[in-house]
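User: I'm preparing a small set of examples for a lab meeting where we compare how different chains pack in three dimensions. I only have the primary sequence for this one, and I'd like the structure in token form so I can line it up with the others. Please keep the answer compact; I'll paste it straight into my notes.
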Amino acid sequence: MAKRALVTGGAGLIGSHIADLFVREGWEVRVLDNLEPQTHRRGKPRWINERAEFVQGDMRDRDTLAAALDKIDIVFHEAAYGGYMPEIAKYVHVNSLGTAQMLEIIRERNLPIKKIVAASSQAVYSEGAGECPQHGVVFPPVRPVEQLRKGDWQVHCPICGVITKSVATPEHAPVGGETVYGLTKVDQEKLVLLWGKQIGIPTVALRYSCTYGPRQSMFNPYTGVIAIFCTRLLNNLPPVLYEDGEQTRDFSFVEDIARANLLAADSDKLDGQAVNVGSGCGTPIREIAEIISAALKIEIASVARGEFRPGEMRHLTSDTTKMNAIGYKPQVDLAEGIQRYIDWIKAQSDVRDYFSEAENILKSKGIIHRVEVMNA
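Assistant: Understood. Below is the structure token output for the 376-residue chain.
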């Protein structure tokens, strides 16, 4: 008998690729998605797998969620409200309350769920791990706003203050979340893992690095930097860099992330744990803009205007030792992945820049700050 999977957020970037993979693997797949207008401006996307059952509904609607969980073996919980939006209550309602309600329904109705694999994020970390010449590997706290206002972007050792060298961040690094989104991802993973231990149902939280690829929303100006840079350049606008553009991120192609979910579902070695999923390589954001510019053959230099977002980490590369131990190995490198995204976005119609308007909103809400101009 085929296994039955529910993919919440299954119309989105990661969820839709998980659905595709599990359909190919012979699973029966049900997709639950509310088609958030910020992401799905044109309604139900055509890429939703025809062999999957599609349910349009919201994680906050108890009856819809209960129906979606009926006769399901494994839940891949991808649904979340993301980015740098200023709507604090919506983040908490969708991400934290929605997850808590799902777990509550499974327990109250004694549903025969065999496993939950939940999407967490590298955003749960305050800052990536650093190496101090004197104190070795350290876990610095978030950089203070006062430091950033002076244009000091570096990560300093919390013991002696020297500038640290970025190293891979292991799962035992402190978590807390320095953005509202990050805070709710901490909520999601802790709720799922705690609940699993209490109930006796295996649960895994996968801390995704920056995920990108075809189907990443062109409409959501708070989505990944690769999508934002592509839409900016295709509209003959420069990519905008925060800080000095030398901050680094670990980028993962979406099909690799989907495969990580399959491995986590099939193995019991990660049960009860939060586990990093990434490439293990850090790439400067400025370099990402250059790669995209070259691939598009649109030579517009990126701009750094002395702006920053408090709570944003400087460097983060995932230590993927745990994930690698169950057979995970990324198959799509950054250059190929960006080219595949570009091929996809070029095939879409009416590619507009939604970033400029969103940026003004973020500035008005105090989410984007500027470096103080120092008097001579």
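A couple of notes for your slides: The two ends are 75 Å apart (CA to CA). The longest strand covers residues 115-121.

User: Perfect, thanks.
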